[in-house]
Amino acid sequence: MKIEITSPGKAILHGEHAVVYGKAAIAVSLNLKTSLLLMSHDEEKVVIELKNLALKKEFDINELNALSCSESVGDILPATDEMFKKISESNELNLFQGETESQKLAITVFLYLWTGISKSYNAGSFTPCNITVDSELSIGSGMGSSASFSVCLSTAALVHCGRITPHLLPEDKQLINKWAYEAEKIFHGKPSGIDNTVCTYGGAVLFENGAVVEMLELYDIPILLVDTKVPRNTKVLVTNVKAKKEKYPQIIVSIMDAIDAISKECWSILKKNSTLEKMEKLQELMIMNHHLLNCIGVGHKDLSKIHDIAEKHCCASKLTGAGGGGCAIILLPLNENFSVDVLKQELSQDFSVWDICLGGSGVEVKFHN
């Protein structure tokens, strides 16, 4: 048996940092994806290869049985500190001998999902298989790489043990999303839930006060995704914004309210049909939000450079994600005289550039004989 699973990445269109304070945010799927290939075999082991992390691990079935952790709550085994400690300190598995932090987290998430789902739905039985994961998404750049990875693994484990159908009914996607959210806790501590939701369902998601308010099918909004290649620490950036808010509460609250208004206006525009008018307004909102995010201190000189280059070519740009580096998105105009190649060439002198689309499908499953 061979199962192929794909899940998209994500970009935050509007609402960065404001969402931390209960304001609205919009996340949109990308047509850059994580891919997982699962193949059954006869050996008594589970093998996982993470190509973009240059890591391959083999686990004997009996070793995996040693990782029986806390009981599931309803349909889900919570990602607890107890579970994390048991995995990381397991002598049987001989883990974490020189791996990078990204490799350690990825393997921990795999073991949590694979053992947790097998224990919950397959009577604790582990079926031998090979799992290969590869991704078009950059790690740590705000593209939802961890959520896309978690969604692919959750789907693979749930399909493999027969808990969900490969057709992915609404209730199947709901279960995938719940497991992926728990996995995101291992990566991020206290995730908002917006990344795993977008990577599961695709399209666009309006998120407010810690919950999904509305989802929207969305396809083929052309953008450039530009990676500054500047690493950033989300926790530090969020802490700095909090400090600024405590120092200047009225000003920062007003900026957060303005970002909230931009997110809601953008959402209403996305639901309309007039493409040309839609794109013009989306451009204007993106420029406004770029400057507001600079006001709260999450910009970066390279993000400003991308904005200036985009503006020179009559395009709008803003950061996506935590800021302080990471990625920017450039909204491309629907203009026959516009040359995206010229813009890409100028950007490529200093940055990595992807010519992609916002929107599209969420997690998908294909069976091969």
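The record above closes out task 2.4. Task 2.5 opens with a second protein, given below.
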Amino acid sequence: MNLAIDIGNTFTKVGLFDGDELLEVKNQLDFLSLKSYLRRKKPQFAIICDVSNGKEIIFNEIAGESNLIFLNPKTRIPIINKYQTPETLGMDRLAAVVGTRVIFPDSANLSIDLGTCITYDFINRKGEYLGGRISPGMQLRWKAMHNYTAKLPMVERPQQGEMEVGVDTISSLRSGVVSGIVHEIEGTIREFQEKFGQINVILCGGDAKFFESIVKPAIFVNHNLILLGLNKILRENVN
């Protein structure tokens, strides 16, 4: 069995694989529970993708529990990386775009990861990763307006994904951010379709479920996209 570990800015998520089959997923693990999970499951190999700047601590905590690969710009990957500054590329972005090729091999794919930031990453039919875009995520936008103005309150995410007309300050803040992100996503999809033709669009990340019902173009949602990509990269390096 193999273990894929995705350490994000907010949450840590792991996926246990038997070959290409995803057996189970665990969310919101801390370092101790992650180490305990490794000891229980005893995977033969594990791969870590970390965007939290905790690399050394995390590596020292769990390096003795499994044959461990730390995803970095020099790790062998099953695609062609054409990003001009690979050393600055978030490894979660790379894993997500590899994950799209697990679902849609030999296709042009756009991954949209709706987390702390929103990342757009594109791979063409040739398997060339061309790059993408980064913009602030939903909570980050509300936090910025609250922190950098004198009177605007902090807004909590609505329970269901919807665009509304703001009838007071709270609903106006909600409406502005939600509708702004929806139009950003839809506009980005149109741009890539106009430039590259038929593409598959896959949403992932903590806010994917919120937006999947209100984004109009045909999309797919896979909450484990990064885990799928990590497992694919891991198998590329250990097989």
